[in-house]
Specification:
With 500 residues, the chain is mostly helical. 62% of the residues lie in helices and 3% in strands. It binds zinc ion.
Length: 500
């Protein structure tokens, strides 16, 4: 092939950038897990230096001309996989190279100012102190879309596409509308039920025991601890890649199963990363598609698997053994109900898998209106509170509990929220397909064997890298476009028998 040298050279450059990114990821993991308080300043300098080197490497002119030559002269001669590598490298290159240095500096400066303003505003529950920073973040978000050739009316789509390649607000809108119509009455039915979960018998489970249990669970569902680990951080996350996957959890006294479920969730992310072919790390053949697909993996393991009966049939005896819990303390049915507790909560991250989607629909609706100009930043708290009443039947008691609860907008992360809900829909669609192809799978879960599920996900999702965009991958694997019907059916099937 004519361009094989250029392809080899491109891959070598991408690998180098990937190595650098893995170093940045590791240093940033350390910052959230280990960093002594007095060393924060030093770490900021280190991160700034790494960011500078990364920016230089990823906007290198020779990288740009390599891409030009591969696209112009050899496009037709490239294999499908090579085209994927070139396409994704171009996407990454343009995302950085098209931004003027002055804009990047302005954006970085605003990010840290806006973050501190958000922290203070949240402490005081005073949105007006944060509003000017949000205005500026929105201006920058429109400006950034402009550098990539998007008109102002398509700016929100640009940011959605950043997280989930190929997705647009207009495609998400009808999905969320249908989901909302099905969810609002379902949530009402569940929360009005006299049946309530009671987690009090689990309060005070020893942290040591929780650590042991979650390690056993995550190992059994397939996380490879020989190239990954789990630690503790304020907010659980998963970082790294297939060669070295880092995840974190947290132990919360008032929510005794939080560490377990957040660990299963992060393991879902970790398994996706560990399933990427190591030989392709840094190229489009060895990377996750986007946030929604990533989230579908974490949600599938956390919810469809981890909150299911077969999972608990296998793990319950060990859970009781570790914590010395007899059935007189909490019955099997109560334990299962606690693992599937549904409760209205004003805070998104404290919400269960049923009500969570309504929190996302609220944010999507408001982001869309902020971008299309039908909502002013100054009117945002009122709009938030009104929509919260419409969707959840809850009015936040102040801005800290409402519009100021999430960090995302302070960092200019727009178009990120929809991924969570799309991920839930995709997880339910995958689950349907999985049960059609392997109808006896849950019998294996009861025996503690999750290997066939993992092998299926490896083949259909993990090993695909970025060959297909979000919608195309879902269609290939499930035979359908993204649709809310399987999620609604799954939620009704799981929760109505428990609560009604
Ligand atoms: Zn997640």
């Amino acid at each position: 092939m004519k361009n094989s040298n250029a392809t080899t050279e491109l891959v070598a450059k991408l690998r180098r950038i990937n190595q650098l990114e893995s170093v940045i990821g590791l240093v940033s993991w350390d910052e959230q897990v280990n960093l002594p308080e007095g060393s924060v300043g030093r770490r900021a300098d280190q991160m700034a230096l790494l960011a500078e080197i990364h920016h230089r490497e990823s906007t290198d002119a020779t990288l740009g001309s390599l891409l030009d030559s591969l696209e112009v002269e050899g496009g037709a001669e490239l294999s499908f996989d090579e085209q994927v590598v070139v396409r994704e490298a171009r996407r990454d290159f343009d995302r950085v190279a098209k931004l003027p240095a002055e804009f990047v500096a302005r954006k970085a400066a605003l990010e840290s100012q806006a973050y501190h303003a958000w922290e203070l505003a949240r402490e005081d529950a005073d949105f007006s102190a944060f509003a000017p920073f949000l205005e500026r973040q929105l201006d920058l978000a429109r400006e950034e879309a402009g550098y990539h050739g998007h008109t102002e009316s398509a700016a929100y789509d640009f940011h959605i596409d950043t997280n989930d390649p190929g997705m647009k607000a207009a495609a998400i809108e009808p999905l969320f509308a249908e989901l909302r119509a099905g969810l609002v009455p379902l949530v009402r039915e569940i929360v009005d039920s006299p049946i309530k979960a009671d987690s009090s018998p689990l309060i005070g489970l020893s942290v040591e025991g929780q650590r042991t249990f979650l390690k056993e669970v995550t190992e059994r569902i397939g996380f490879d601890y020989s190239r990954g680990r789990v630690d503790v951080s304020v907010h659980p996350f998963c970082s790294g890649d297939a060669a070295d996957t880092r995840m974190t959890t947290r132990f919360m006294g008032h929510a005794p199963l939080e560490a377990l479920f957040s660990s299963i969730h992060e393991t879902g992310h970790g398994l996706y990363e560990q399933g990427q072919p190591i030989e392709h790390l840094g190229t489009g053949l060895g990377r996750a598609v986007g946030m929604a697909i990533h989230e579908s993996q974490s949600r599938l393991w956390e919810n469809q698997v981890g909150r299911g009966r077969p999972f608990w049939r296998f793990f319950e005896p060990r859970f009781r053994e570790i914590f010395g819990l007899g059935t007189d303390g909490i019955s099997s049915d109560q334990l299962f109900l606690t693992a599937n507790e549904v409760k209205l909560h004003p805070i998104r991250v404290e919400s269960d898998e049923v009500t969570y989607n309504l929190h996302i629909i609220l944010r999507f609706e408001l982001e869309k209106r902020l971008f299309d100009g039908t909502l002013e930043v100054s009117d945002l708290p009122d709009a938030w509170n009104a929509l919260s009443v419409e969707l959840l039947g809850l009015s936040p008691k102040n801005d800290a509990e409402g519009v100021l609860q999430d960090v995302h907008w302070s960092g200019g992360d727009f178009g990120y929220f929809p991924s969570y809900c799309l991920g839930n829909m995709i997880a339910a669609q995958l689950w349907d397909r999985i049960n059609v192809e392997m109808p006896d799978l849950e019998r294996e879960f009861e025996k503690g064997d999750f290997s066939r599920l993992l092998a299926w996900l490896r083949e259909k999702i993990h090993h695909q890298g970025q060959r297909y965009d979000t919608m195309a991958l879902v269609r290939r694997v499930t035979g359908q476009m993204i649709t809310p019907a399987p999620l609604l059916r799954y939620l009704r099937d799981r929760y109505l028998p428990l609560y009604c």
